[in-house]
Amino acid sequence: MWVVKLGGSLAESDRLPRWLHALAGRSDLVLVPGGGPFADQVRAAQARWGFDDSAAHHMALLAMEQFGRMLFALQAGLVPAASPRAIQYLIRKGETPVWMPTQMVLADPLIAHSWDLTSDSLAAWLCGRLNAGGLLLVKSASLAGVPLDPAHLSDRGIVDRAFPAYAQRLRVPIRLLSDDDLDRLDETLTAGSSGAGGSST
Question: Which residue in 118, 105, 145, 142 sits closest to 42, CA to CA?
Fold first, then answer.
């Protein structure tokens, strides 16, 4: 099983329906939604009103769930799941779970309440929690020639600042695809393991 994080920026992309059609009904992955425009509204509200990062953290998790609910409203075969047990149950049924992160993440006091940690790091965290076989990040960014080094990706703003630390803990392949790389999805998920940090860009 792979953890596949679908970037929230795809909420504005005409490619989104094709990605959802390709991902739905697969029993070899769990889909992690990004925050996208929903998280952007949390950032804007915090900048306007100055509430603390703990409130923003909770609201950003709910933003991921808003995007997730949009995804399974758009595509049959995608089903919400808020716990490892629910995820495994749906996979056994041949459905594709869409992770609703709030319950699990708020229950872990070690996860920082900070914008340095976003859905990228949470996808890596979930990958470890589920003992998944790999982590795939789908981004609406040009990745041609970009080395898959977590620190480099963080410096470029492609992943969040906390991601390198979370990625370092994983001992499974980490892959990165652009939103125009849909034709490489199958080969990415079925490719042999080359260890954490192996690149498919």
Answer: 118
